[in-house]
Amino acid sequence: MRLAFILSEIGSGIRRNLSMVTSVILVTFISLTFVGAAGLFQLQINQMKGYWYDRVQVTLYLCVDNSSETSCATGPVTKDQRAAIQAKLESEQFAPYVDTVTYESQDEALAHFRDQFANSPIVDSVTADQLPESFRVSLVDAEKYEVIDEAFSSEPGVDAVSDQRDFLEAIFRYMNWASVVALAIAGVMTFCAILLIATTIRLSAFSRRRETGIMRLVGASKAVIQLPFILEGVIAAVIGAVLASAALWGASRFVIDGWLANTFPQTAFISSQQVLILVPVLILLGAVLAGLSSLLTLRRYVKV
After folding, report:
1. Are residues 37 and 174 in the same domain?
2. What is the DSSP string of 183-196?
3. What is the pTM of this model?
4. Is the same domain home to 42 and 182?
5. Who has greater pLDDT, 11 or 124?
6. Segment 203-227, tens digit of pLDDT
7. Are residues 208 and 134 part of one domain?
8. Within this chain, do residues 32 and 180 fall inside the same structural domain, yes or no?
């Protein structure tokens, strides 16, 4: 009997405040979509870090005519210097750090340059002798870049030691900022959702003040009186969370899996299955926010 009463009160409250409940659903949907988007950004960043850091290479650029480093004081790298550098890289001393070593000649560097800058007007003005030879070193552990840098930065014949992580970290830094911005917007929208839920519950309680007064007189408990109002907000917020989850899954399924993954096959993207991790989090977050907001509103404005 009590359950039937609570359900009837919830239905009555939703019908009376249908426009406000719809507003709660929409605002919750938008705010939790931003929360989920921030979560997806972070999942994508972690996925790309794990993928690209495993493929990070350290590049040892060898001396050319115009090199200004002290290790290039004798001029362009000699055959003996090149052989010594390669032998050192492949020695037992660096075996725990170095996975593979690949040599790139000036002609190969020019071919790569022309592929990379095929549409640039300067491509025809660059010659092979202007580009350095290099050793591209794949590491066992990308975090051990400093070992190679310290050992070879002053090695005769080595002009510079470059780590791709510097470039990748800049990209990930911008992506992290995008995630923070999305989370900040989500915070603002969530605050708006909390205020709207509180207003909706307050109006619903005010419109039914006669019923609540009668319930108090007949001895109804505080929980029985407050529960229908709380559940109205929770139901609206959960519907908004479900819609947000569906929108995020759809974006992942059709935009990430269907378009980005095919357009950029060399990039590690998150899958739509990973998005499902966020679904229970969003639903729980929506329910908790709505429940707490409703409860605090009722304690302040509804004396039972």
Report:
1. yes
2. HHHHHHHHHHHHHH
3. 0.65
4. yes
5. 124
6. 777 766 666 666 666 666 666 667 7
7. no
8. yes
Read out DSSP for the chain? -HHHHHHHHHHHHHHHTHHHHHHHHHHHHHHHHHHHHHHHHHHHHHHHHHHHHTT-EEEEEEP-TT--SGGGTTSSPPHHHHHHHHHHHTSGGGTTTEEEEEEE-HHHHHHHHHHHTTT-TTGGG--GGGS--EEEEEESSGGGHHHHHHHHTTSTTEEEEEETHHHHHHHHHHHHHHHHHHHHHHHHHHHHHHHHHHHHHHHHHHHTHHHHHHHHHTT--HHHHHHHHHHHHHHHHHHHHHHHHHHHHHHIIIIIIIIIHHH-TTS-PPPHHHHTTHHHHHHHHHHHHHHHHHHHHHHHH---
Among the candidates 163, 188, 216, a domain finishes at 163
Residue 159, domain CATH: 3.30.70.3040
- Domain encompassing residue 98: 57-163
Does 287 score more than 70 pLDDT?
A: yes
